[in-house]
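Q&A FORM
Asked by: J.P.
Topic: structure of Zinc ribbon domain-containing protein

PROVIDED:
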Amino acid sequence: MIFWLSFYAFFFIASVYIGYCKGNLIAGVLLGYVLGPIGFILMCMSKDRKHIECPSCHAHIHKNSYFCPECRSKVMSTAV
Ligand SMILES: [Zn+2]
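REPLIED BY: S.T.
REPLY: Here is the structure written out as tokens.
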């Protein structure tokens, strides 16, 4: 019983953390709470809404940045 509780809590916290990192905290909390490990997997596969990929060097940068911190090229923030 304790094992399953800690197992479940681990995936709940992990999915909340992934949701926070991806700018999708509410979905992380809900999926982790309702689905546990499955919610964690869904959060892993969900789209990162907080970061975009630099078109020049493919580095992950914040979606609001105008210049890539890695290669200094201008980034069009076309968030899809
Ligand atoms: Zn770049």
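FOLLOW-UP: Residues 50-80 form one domain.
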